[in-house]
């Protein structure tokens, strides 16, 4: 019976089927909201599904000089890592696999899709992909520092209350703290980290104004320039799922709590919160800003979000 439950969790919720459907719906909502903000009708919310299945039906062309195995394996590896992360993120107190991994594991797993993009782009042998790879590396260097420091502030804050002052990286304990003391974003010391993480999400996802690696107008989608058919469809799916996973992780870290105890209701509440977070961290920025240059991205993240994250960590250490 336990084995059957595990399989259902992996395949249905919060695993494969949820990630695919939830990610594509979230992407469709993002496009619809952006269109409305720009006074356009926009595509239907289900448009990402149409795009995904259309790409699946297209021919897969592998460049003559490409490293074929790495070229085809890269998008699949990225997809597997994102689904694995989703399994570890609690939905309020529902966390079937959270005891198997903590924030450190989640950070490593969230890095794999970016590495997969780099590997896939380098395997294609395209000069445009080479430019995109270097940009993706700069993006990773840019957002990892404020993200890690923000997570350290949360770990210390929860550890002071539940673990005798020792940092805790357990997502289950972070949720338990919020169930007892209210959402973390209401704590003065965590508000700067809350803002920093909100700014990290668009660069981690690779959306405007931080989509420097895949800038279509400048470098023809960079690492994806040689991709077509099913591999390209999986990379596009990875982008949608990454949006879902990052906003879901944000909700768990800052907006979680005891929940209702009814999984369907809690899942619905979580998804509504995910849409709200997506609007403020991704859609709104798309609507009001243009793409930043590579050096502007690095400078931005190593100043404002990093400063906010360190401020939060300092405030936590002073017991605020």
Word description of this protein:
With 320 residues, this protein is mainly α. It has one domain (2-317). It is 70% helix and 0% strand. The protein contains 13 helices and no strands. The chain has helices at 2-11, 16-37, 47-56, 68-88, 103-124, 127-162, 171-181, 191-205, 216-219, 229-254, 263-288, 294-301, 304-317. Helix 8 (191-205) packs antiparallel against helix 10 (229-254), helix 8 (191-205) packs across helix 11 and helix 10 (229-254) packs across helix 11. The chain is globular. It comes from Caloramator proteoclasticus DSM 10124. It is a multi-pass membrane protein. This is Formate hydrogenlyase subunit 4.
Question: What are the SSEs and their pairings?
Answer:
Layout: H1 2-11, H2 16-37, H3 47-56, H4 68-88, H5 103-124, H6 127-162, H7 171-181, H8 191-205, H9 216-219, H10 229-254, H11 263-288, H12 294-301, H13 304-317
Helix pairs in contact: 2-10, 2-11, 3-10, 4-5, 4-10, 5-6, 6-8, 6-12, 6-13, 8-10, 8-11, 8-13, 10-11
Helix fraction, binned, reads over 70%
Average pLDDT figure: 90
Q: Which sheet architecture does the biggest sheet show?
A: none
Measured distance between first and last alpha carbons: 46 Å
Structural class: mainly alpha
Please mark out the parts with pLDDT under 50 across 5 or more consecutive residues, or reply none. Answer: none
| Count of separate structural domains | 1
User: What sort of overall outline do the alpha carbons produce when their principal axes are compared?
Assistant: globular
Classify the beta-strand content into a percent band: under 5%
Please write the string of helix (H) and strand (E) elements: HHHHHHHHHHHHH
Q: Give the count of helical stretches.
A: 13
How many runs of DSSP E, i.e. beta strands?
Answer: 0
The radius of gyration computed from the alpha-carbon positions, rounded to a whole number of angstroms, is 19 Å
